[in-house]
Design a protein that fits this description.
Layout lengths: L16 E2 L2 H11 L5 E6 L19 E7 L2 E6 L2 E6 L5 E6 L11 E5 L3 E6 L8 E6 L3
Antiparallel strand pairs: 1-6, 2-7, 3-4, 4-5, 5-9, 6-8, 7-8
Amino acid sequence: MIASPLKGIMMPGSPTKATDPTSAAKLISDHAIGATVSTFRVFGINSLKTYSDPDALQGQALESVAEVENTLQLKFTRHSIDVDLQRTGSVIWHAIDNTSASKSPTGRLIFTNGFALTFAEPAKTKRIAFWVKEAST
């Protein structure tokens, strides 16, 4: 499990895009641990694989991220999201108003600190998969 106290700070020279689960977990750990979710949106209708309401994540802090068997596991205060990037997916960390973010994302986590994690892929077919789950008790 990877954790970081940086809480959304853009570090000079640090990567802002990752194309595999291992580097994506590091990118998320370096930038988003401790950040509070403002909104989570899934833009590909077939990409949300669970019935859980993505709005349930609002106000929760990202506590940890791990890469397990090629899947990203993001743990929040009361929920978690498993993300399968498939073969071509990428994760981009950017300011919300940044024009370099994907114009056609599959999903996006927007944080209250003015930054976002965008999950994107090069094709129009949305293959990245998201599973939103309540935390185990």
